[in-house]
Write a structure and sequence with these properties.
five-stranded parallel β-sheet; 48% helix; alpha/beta; 6 helices; 5 strands
């Protein structure tokens, strides 16, 4: 399974990539920081899942979600946020997100959703050695 992270924070993106790349069935995790970069990567790699930071600058998150729905409707869509009031969550679900995950408290939910999706392509088990190695590399500034 190929995953694209659309996240404005490079640090958050690297840490998420380190965790997600450790899941069996996850082949690659690429990152984009803007709408244009995300569209370019989606066209090049056709990811299975896109994770979108709800707080991208200039409202670009909605634009990324709309682009996915129009051009790659079979791609799984997950919105990551720090604000999950009922109105906010509903807004994202109406806009086409399949999951809206609170990154301040629900990182386990994110890995569970990715594991569930990966199980369709593989075992979905987390390899602890790969995880520790990836987190250590991310903390040193190396790409996973």
């Amino acid at each position: 399974m190929n995953i694209l992270l659309v996240e404005s924070s490079v640090i958050v993106s690297e840490r998420l990539a380190a965790v997600l790349s450790c899941l069996d069935g996850v082949v690659s995790v690429k990152a984009a920081t803007t709408h244009d970069e995300a569209v370019s990567l989606m066209q090049a790699m056709s990811p299975d899942v896109v994770l979108i930071d709800a707080h991208l600058p200039d409202g670009q998150a909605i634009q990324v979600l709309a682009w996915v729905q129009e051009h790659l409707p079979s791609m799984r869509r997950i919105v990551l946020s720090r604000d999950l009031s009922g109105v906010f969550r509903k807004r994202w679900l109406i806009a086409g997100a399949e999951h809206v995950i609170d990154m301040t408290m629900q990182t386990d939910e994110l890995t569970n959703v990715i594991k569930m999706l990966a199980e369709r392509c593989g075992s979905g088990r987390l390899d602890p050695d790969r995880y520790l190695s990836s987190v250590t590399d991310a903390e040193k500034g190396n790409k996973p």
